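Lay summary. Proteins are chains of building blocks that fold into shapes, and those shapes determine what they do. In this project we predict the shape from the chain. Here is one chain we studied, written as its sequence of building blocks.
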Amino acid sequence: QANLVIMKKELADKFHQFCLKNSQPCPLLSVLEPGQYEPQQLASGSDVRTDLPKYRVYREGKLIEEVSDITNIFESDMVSFFIGCSFSFESLLLKENIRIKNVDEKKNVAMYKTNIDCQSCEPFSTKMVVSMRPIKNSQLERVAQLTSNMPQAHGPPIHIGDPSEIGISDISKVDFGDSISISDDETPVFWACGVTSSLAAISPQSGTVITHSPGYMFVTDVLDSDGKKLFDSVNQPKTI
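And here is the predicted shape, written in a compact code that computers can read:
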């Protein structure tokens, strides 16, 4: 699965640099040419304008609307960025008999703004957003090992344990997604989250920016096992 950010070409190079500087919260999977709307490398025959369940439209940094189709908004000079998502490592954890509480509870993952600064690339800067999954205490080390091998899905945890250490004062109050219960034999584990890219992109200087709505991702045809190869090929300097 992938997060989505679409913006005008004039700022796309700067945003690309921002993603390269912050590859853990913003692991690039694909960057389309201006005006292109079919991400052939991710899903041949798909259409970035219609194939997400819900989009958010921002202008000058303000949320204008949420829509299910951006065909009438998408312009010929817009560049689409696809950014990895931690949902992509959940199947691997489940295969290892590691419980995923948001899956069990049929909820979206819990997401929070933190006090962790991303590296800025003006006009793009933001605090890092993280996702949280409660993990059994006996499985913490294994979870860190497994996810460290998936940089395309944010890699290893950013933080394990006390949420206040990364600026989260009340873990029951999410900034995005749904609150997830934490049992006595579980520890909250935090991964960098692709919503970081959306918050960075909606600078007042960015003009019109389109993103996925949190939790409403672009589903690719790329297998999880092929994701790292894709990440390695895309996360290189380039001019858009």
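What the prediction tells us: Residues 159 and 190 are 5 Å apart (CA to CA).
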